[in-house]
Amino acid sequence: MLVLTINSGSSSVKYQLINTSTQKALCRGIVERIGIDGTKLKHKTAEGKKFEKIDSEITNHQTAIGKILEILVDTQNGVIDSLSKIESVGHRLVHAGEKFKHSVLITNEVMSKLHECIEFAPLHNPHNIKGVEASLENLAGLPNVGVFDTTFHADIPDYAYTYGIPYEYYRKHGIRRYGFHGTSHYYVSRRAAEILGRDVSELKMITCHLGNGSSITAIQGGVSIDTTMGFTPLEGLVMGTRCGDIDPGVIFNIASRENMTVDEACDFFNKKCGVLGISEMTSDMREIEEAAEAGIYNAKLALEVYNYRIKKYIGSYFGILNGADVIVFTGGVGENSDITRAAAVGDMDQLGIVIDPERNAATRSKEAIISTPDSPVTLMVIPTNEELVIAMETERIIRESK
After folding, report:
1. Which of 242, 310, 309 is nearest to 273 (CA)?
2. Using CA atoms, how far apart are residues 217 and 205, in angstroms rounded to an integer?
3. Side-chain half-sphere exposure of 186, counting CA atoms within 13 A
4. Residue 217 forms beta bridges with which residues?
5. pLDDT of residue 97
């Protein structure tokens, strides 16, 4: 099945056209700066042919997806000769609340419920929905499937998802831990088992999706049993611009002192904190590492705080799982930063975690085992492939609906 995957953000639309039979992408690309000067479409085929164009005609998500469809069948840069070759569209959707615990075929009823879920992720869900609506308009009659970031974590136990607040707020408003990056944690856990020649049901894993947004998940027998992100993607690790775990009193204190509204406080703790806030420079970990190496105190502090929080959660999940067989690093930082990987699992030999410095330093954006041969815990780097999960889920849902 040929599946077009769509990941729609506030000012961007990422896409891939994937053949689920071969599990390979025919092409991938992004429309960025939608509605902003300099809107650009970037397109790359599986053979490495690239196309870029600044296009002032792209003013919203509908026109963005229209341009994506045009490039897919373009005689010079396209990969199919007719849009009729596309059999379905799979969408990355961030938050389903408890309305959807699994991927779902998009219907009018589903769209109505998706709008009800906006309150759970107001920074993400509205833009995801725009992508769905634009797809339905541009590819009328084609089945669309929603694949949720929260799905993989839908079955974590109640004692892991319940917050220490009056229980009525869970009943009334669905306030609980949900977790995110589910497609990434799902993919790398399955891929790790495949590489090791083991059944995922036999393994205890800790998967670390580290990037501008970061989360860690404890996986037992292929099932997520706890994860660092919570009701929203704000909880857990210190991230690029998000504060992560914080004493709620800090929120009240800063909001009061700075005369912030609720919306302003939400924006502040999501977009102006984390590595950016500590470093007072940037949220880009590559620049942070360079500045730390140059001896800039705030950069060094930001890097240490970022890495320390990862190590802290790995240790806590060791306790929850009663040990681990595998620790996986993925995401932009997890796949590329040997500095963060070394700091996150360094000096943990008493837990059976022994990293190989040479293997670690030599690994960037490729599948690799970076632990020593005699390490009881296998350390792995696995580039994630969330789009493939979306495509395969889309195929499964459509076949089951027939």
Report:
1. 242
2. 8
3. 20
4. 207, 227
5. 85
Sheet hosting strand 144-148, strand order edge to edge: 50-54, 40-45, 24-32, 12-19, 2-8, 88-93, 144-148, 104-105
Q: Are the beta carbons of 44 and 129 closer than 8 angstroms?
A: no
Residues annotated as catalytic (active site), given as ranges: 149
Query: How many C-beta neighbours within 10 Å does residue 105 have?
Result: 15
Burial class (CB in 10 A: 0-12, 13-18, 19+), 22: exposed
Q: Furthest-apart CA pair in the chain: how many Å?
A: 61
Three-class secondary structure of residue 89 per DSSP: strand
Annotate 196-233 with b (16+ C-beta within 10 A) or e (fewer): beeebeebbbbbbbbbbbbbbbbbbebebbbbbbbbbb
Determine the Cα–Cα distance for residues 359 and 169; give it in Å rounded to an integer: 48
pLDDT for res 35: 83
Beta bridge partners of 138: none
Q: Are 68 and 137 in contact (CB under 8 A)?
A: no
Contact 26, 72 (CB under 8 A): no
SS3 state of residue 224: strand
Structure tokens at 115: 């709008």
* SS3 at position 259: coil
Read off the DSSP letter of residue 105: E
Residues of the chain with pLDDT under 50: none
Cβ proximity of 82 and 74 under 8 Å:
no
| DSSP per-residue codes, 64-75 | HHHHHHHHHT-T
Helix (H, G, I), strand (E, B) or coil at 305: helix
- Asked if 21 and 36 touch (Cβ cutoff 8 Å), the reply is no
Within 10 angstroms of residue 250's Cβ, the number of other Cβ atoms is 11
Question: Residue type for 56, please?
Answer: S
pTM of the model: 0.94
- Amino acid 370: pLDDT: 98
Set out the domains of the chain in order of their start, with CATH numbers: 2-148 (3.30.420.40), 198-381 (3.30.420.40)
Q: Which amino acid is at 301?
A: L
Residue that is written with structure tokens 């690239």 in the block: 50
* β-strands 215-220, 223-227 pairing: antiparallel
Nearest to 30 by CA among 81, 68, 78: 68
